[in-house]
Amino acid sequence: WMADNPPRTIREIAEDLEKSKSAVDRRITALGFRGAKGDRPEYEKLTGVALDPVIRPVRVDVGDFPPPKPLSTHYSMLVWSDVHYPFQDDRAVNVLEQVAADLQPEVLMCLGDVLDFHELSAHRQRGPNEEKDDIMEGLEGGTRHLARMRSISNARRAYFRGGNHEDRWDQMLDAARKDPRFRQLLKLPKIQRALAFSEVIGFKELGYDYQPYMEGDITVWNGKLVLTHGDLTSKHTSMAMMGKYGKSVMFGHMHRINNFTKRDLRGQESGWCIGCLCTLNPHYNIFADWHQGFAVVNWKKIDGEWYYDVEQIRIHDGMAFWRDKVYSSSL
Known about the structure:
single chain; alpha/beta; 6-stranded mixed β-sheet; 5-stranded mixed β-sheet
């Protein structure tokens, strides 16, 4: 029957035969139609069943990185977040890369939400031109972006602090563990390693120090500045985030650019929301009040004490002005 009428999916076979998908799958296996172990093309040819795409580790050849070295006493740090592949704005990303090439920062600090993972969202809305889910598109795009930043900047150190959208990956696995069948499967060490977000992206190979969202994503740099993705949302988020940590803080999450500074008897502290690099016209939001940009933090050690200065770089319509130079996207 299957040879004369090759179906496209196991679901269609099951519906035609009024059987469960698992029963049909077991029958295909029993008939020996799967071909050699791991032989996906042969299986699809014999059965007419197109296997669903699998999540595979993303690997990008980025060559050799400079060995880790102690940072100098005067260096720059490039900070960005919220690119949201595959909903990135290529022009804004191109401006970031141009600045990275000119700046040659010693430190890269990515504050998360480089990936959107809209497929994993519980409140996901399909776009008007979206015909299929392809999680690999976002994974591959985001990973190549991180690799380019390492290659372009020649940074001595690189950090990735996970955002709430990367956290959707772990939320997906947590939901799967509630099903007894998946819970047993996810206990297997090889499965755990293969599905670990850090392994799927390959942070080690890319040369990034990775910490997951709401676990290790808060970094206090030189005891002066908190760097984190962020988790608060309000019109005055910079003030709220500074109040939360009681220390100067730089973050993303809100897709906006703003700054708040306060001085009291304990001293002066500031909060910086650094903007985003994703599209400003997402299909799920009508006229989002979002702003594109990123930041440069300049550090200098004077008489044993660290001091820093923040430059917020704003991007408008694929163009930015920084240090008397115009950066215009070539895309």
